[in-house]
Structures are given as structure tokens and as C-alpha cells.
Write a structure and sequence with these properties.
Layout lengths: L1 H20 L9 H15 L11 H13 L4 H9 L13 H5 L4 H13 L5 H8 L4 H28 L3 H11 L2 H5 L10 H5 L15 H9 L30 H12 L9 H16 L11 E2 L23 E2 L12 H42 L4 H4 L8 H16 L5 H6 L3 E3 L4 E3 L4 H7 L1 H4 L13 H6 L20 H11 L3
Antiparallel strand pairs: 1-2, 3-4
Helix pairs in contact: 2-12, 2-13, 2-14, 3-6, 3-8, 3-15, 4-6, 8-15, 8-22, 9-15, 12-13, 14-15, 17-19
Length: 506
């Protein structure tokens, strides 16, 4: 009888010990570990992408294409405009436009024709369409258009890299894993227990789901279930504390949402950079590098590991072996096993850096494109701004006054302009007549040089478009010249065609 009583007491003691081994972890055990994970969760949720920049590239390309087709003459422009909604085969047979707009060039020609078609009532556009450019002007136009096309192509490539959509996908996968992993987010995969899912620290291999996503690791640290009933394992999270009381295999997307919200409450900034992501990774890496267990031999563990870690991470509070943790695997003689979400975060950080660099390049290219557009407009309309033509002179000298006179005349030439256009030409704006006017002070300079500039008509050489017009310009002949103006040699039409053909070989 005494032996039977002793056996019953022994069985009761074993049962009690087993129950203690299965008891919940203590409140606050994983406060530090969860804080480390929150740094990563917040960084992934708030990663700042480059702002999408607006660009004038398409408008500038339209303008460049329009100027370009005028090099073939008025008849070519008319033919292209008439067939801008049709196809290349409709163009006049044997014409320069038929040759120069063949193949891939047809898209660019159509772009220019469509632009000019929409500017049929614009006086400047009509001037481009009827202009006969000098050889130097034609080459400048061709070179500038080519630079615009190449710059626009590079701008498009950089802008696309700045808008790398794969970054957001990397961050989402780091947070919540693949779609399949999201569908079975729990403290234990179906048919597995918590230890198999989160990690058995007695083995070298990582837990089956350890490191698959930040969400999974958060549940391994903080998640409740029948095997781990402590809601405050990761600290007092208030209304964001996990509430699942079912089996480990119960999908816990609601508890993950609460844990994510708990992390957001500790967030220190609204937007994180690539540097913030890497800093959070560094904190995490330092955390799991620290040895745990009474034998100081359990590494790459996140969360509190009790005793020697023989039975961690099973969610229990055994003083000798349990713990609610994540085990990423540790083999001293082998490289560390990869952590999926860590790889994705590093990858996203690198992509964010590249995207920011691309955005900066795109901005610089945009400014270059705007500058080239101004240059092209200046050549095509034979107008220049003071910023590109004025040379340094002594104030009050004859040369300085002559430059101011030129500026006054230049401003007066620009009619039907907007205030912004006049400003870009370094002129004031006459709102009543919607045209440019000289800035105050230039009128006086013009008056002061009136008599001095009389008879000096060599500035008319630039306005002469034909050899006949050049011959009619009067004034002082330059030494070694038999006329006031040197002859203006016009590029032959065949050479113009060749130049345009070369232009399209971009």
C-alpha cells in the first residue's frame, strides 16, 4: 500500500513538473528583442522613395522635332503636316522628307509635323517654316537637336530607375513574406509545432519559418496560443497585445496587425532612409551575435532563451530549456544561413540609394535639356539673350552703351510674348500690349549712342539671309574685304538632306 501511495505521489510530481515546463513565458521576457524587431518593421514600412519628378522632355522633343523638319524646306513641312495622321507611304515620292523620314525616323518626323500643325497661327512657327538657314545655322540646329534627343533618352532611363517599383515589393515581402507565407502566418505551421516553426536551438538548422518575414518572427516572439498564454511576453502593448488563444497553427494575421501597430507607436520619424534600414539591420545583427544559454553556445537567437536552450524556442517557460524566441540557425564552421527578410531589406536599401542617385541625375539632365531647348530656340528664331551675347565692358564707355542699345532693340523685337518669356530674354513685360520692352535705363543708353552708331550698319550682316542682301548692306568695310559683309554661303539642299539623314541615325 505504501509503495502504491509513493507511486501515485511520484506520478503527480511528474505531472506537475511537466505542467511547469509547459507554462507561459514571463511578461516582458522579449521586450528588448521586440524593440529591435520594431526598428526593422518601422524602417520597412516608412522607407522614403524619391519623389516622382515632372519633366518637360516630351514638350522639348516636340519642339526639337518641329525645328528639325523645317531644314527640308517649306514644301516638305507642308507635306509632313498633311500626312501627320497617316503613314510614311503617303509622303511625296522622291522628296527629301520621304527619304529622311523613313524607318524609325518617321515617328520623330510625325512628332515635329504634329507640333507645327498645332502652331499654324503662331508667328514664330511660321518663321521657322519659311526660314532658310545658313550652313552654320543648319549645323548648329542639327547638333543641338541630336543633343536634345540623346539627353532626353538618358533622362528617360534615369527617371525609370528613380521610379524602381521593385523596391516596394521587396519591402512588402520583407514585412509579410510571399503570398503563400502570408496565408499561413502563425506561431506554428500546419502539422508542425511552435518549436519546429520558430526554431529548435538544440540543432544547427534554423526554424522552418524563422526569418521568412518580419511578421513571422514577431509572432514567434510575442504571439499567444495554447502553448504560450502570456500576452505581455513583448511588454505591455495595451490594445495592441496579441489575443489568439487557439492552437499554434491558427492563422494570426489579426495579431500581426496589432504588433505592427505597436511598432508604429514607437516610430521616431515619418520617413526612413536607406541608411536607417541599414542601421536597424546593424542593431539586429549585434543582438543575435550575442551568445545565449548557460553554456554560452546558442547564437543567432532573437528573444529570451532559458537554461541551456535544449528545448527552445517552444514557447514554454521552463527554467532549464524553454523560451519564446526565433532561431536563425548556427553552424560554427559554416557561413550563417541566410535570413530572407534581411536579404530583402539590404536589397531594398541598395535600390533606394540607386534610385536617389538616378533621381539626382535625372534632375541634372532635365536642366541640361531646358538649356538645350533655349539654345535651339535662339538659333531657330535668330534671337539671343543678353546672358549669352554680352561681353564685359567698362560702364559708361561707348562699347557698353552700344551693347545696351542692342539689348533695347532686341527686346522691342519680341511681340506677342508672355511675362515669363520676356523675363527669360532679360526684358521687361508690357502687359497692355502683351510684348517685351527694354528694362529701365537701356532707353537712355540707346539715345546716348544715337549719333555714334549712325552709319555703323555692319550689325545688319546678321539679318542678311542671301548673298544679294549681304551686298546691299552699307557701312565700313573690314580690312581685306571687298564688301561690308562677307558672303553668306547657303548650304545646298542636297547637303541639308544628308545632314537630316545623319541626324536620325541616333
Amino acid at each position: 500500500m505504501a509503495a502504491l501511495k509513493q507511486t501515485v505521489l511520484l506520478l503527480a510530481l511528474v505531472a506537475e513538473t511537466t505542467q511547469q515546463a509547459r507554462a507561459a513565458v514571463s511578461a516582458g521576457d522579449n521586450t528588448d528583442a521586440f524593440a529591435t524587431l520594431c526598428l526593422l518593421i518601422n524602417a520597412a514600412q516608412t522607407a522614403k522613395m524619391p519623389e516622382k519628378a515632372t519633366s518637360k522632355a516630351e514638350e522639348i522633343l516636340d519642339f526639337a522635332a518641329a525645328i528639325n523638319i523645317t531644314l527640308d524646306g517649306k514644301e516638305a513641312v507642308a507635306d509632313l503636316i498633311a500626312n501627320s495622321d497617316s503613314d510614311h507611304g503617303k509622303l511625296k515620292s522622291g522628296s527629301p522628307q520621304k527619304t529622311n523620314c523613313a524607318g524609325d525616323a518617321w515617328t520623330f518626323c510625325k512628332k515635329g509635323a504634329t507640333k507645327l500643325k498645332g502652331l499654324s497661327k503662331n508667328t514664330e512657327a511660321q518663321e521657322w517654316m519659311t526660314s532658310q538657314y545658313t550652313a552654320a545655322e543648319s549645323k548648329l540646329i542639327a547638333d543641338t537637336v541630336q543633343q536634345i534627343v540623346e539627353t532626353a533618352q538618358e533622362l528617360e532611363a534615369q527617371a525609370a530607375q528613380a521610379e524602381d517599383t521593385t523596391i516596394a515589393q521587396d519591402l512588402t515581402n520583407a514585412l509579410e513574406g510571399t503570398e503563400d507565407q502570408r496565408n499561413k502566418l502563425a506561431t506554428a505551421y500546419a502539422s508542425d509545432n511552435r518549436q519546429t516553426t520558430c526554431g529548435a536551438t538544440a540543432h544547427e538548422r534554423p526554424g522552418k519559418a524563422a526569418g521568412k518575414s518580419l511578421a513571422q518572427d514577431a509572432l514567434c516572439l510575442c504571439g499567444k496560443s495554447t502553448s504560450q498564454t502570456e500576452a505581455k511576453a513583448c511588454g505591455d502593448l495595451g490594445t495592441n497585445a496579441p489575443t489568439n488563444s487557439n492552437a499554434d497553427t491558427t492563422v494570426q494575421t489579426d495579431d500581426w496587425a496589432k504588433l505592427k501597430k505597436a511598432c508604429q507607436a514607437t516610430q521616431s520619424s515619418k520617413a526612413s532612409t536607406a541608411g536607417d534600414i541599414r542601421a536597424a539591420i546593424a542593431v539586429f545583427s549585434g543582438k543575435i551575435a550575442k551568445a545565449q544559454g548557460t553554456g554560452h553556445n546558442r547564437r543567432r537567437v532573437l528573444g529570451k532563451l532559458n537554461g541551456d536552450g535544449a528545448n527552445g524556442c517552444d514557447g514554454s517557460n521552463s527554467a532549464t530549456a524553454g523560451g519564446s524566441c526565433v532561431y536563425y540557425g548556427y553552424e560554427p564552421a559554416q557561413p550563417p544561413a541566410p535570413i530572407a527578410w534581411l536579404t530583402l531589406l539590404n536589397q531594398a536599401a541598395d535600390k533606394i540609394d540607386k534610385a536617389n542617385q538616378a533621381a539626382a541625375k535625372a534632375y541634372a539632365l532635365e536642366q541640361q535639356l531646358i538649356s538645350l531647348n533655349k539654345t535651339l530656340a535662339s538659333i531657330a528664331t535668330r534671337t539671343t539673350t543678353t546672358s549669352t551675347t554680352k561681353v564685359d565692358t567698362q560702364p559708361g564707355t561707348k562699347q557698353d552703351k552700344q551693347q545696351e542699345t542692342g539689348k533695347q532693340k532686341e527686346c522691342e523685337k519680341h511681340t506677342d510674348k508672355t511675362e515669363q518669356q520676356c523675363k527669360s530674354l532679360e526684358c521687361d513685360y508690357d502687359a497692355e500690349n502683351k510684348k517685351c520692352k527694354p528694362k529701365p535705363g537701356t532707353e537712355a543708353a540707346a539715345a546716348a549712342t544715337g549719333d555714334e552708331s549712325a552709319g555703323a550698319t555692319t550689325d545688319k550682316c546678321g539679318e542678311a539671309k542671301t548673298p544679294e542682301a549681304s551686298a546691299k548692306v552699307t557701312g565700313t568695310k573690314h580690312e581685306g574685304k571687298n564688301a561690308v559683309c562677307g558672303s553668306i554661303i547657303l548650304m545646298e539642299r542636297e547637303k541639308l538632306r544628308q545632314l537630316v539623314a545623319l541626324l536620325f541615325l541616333l
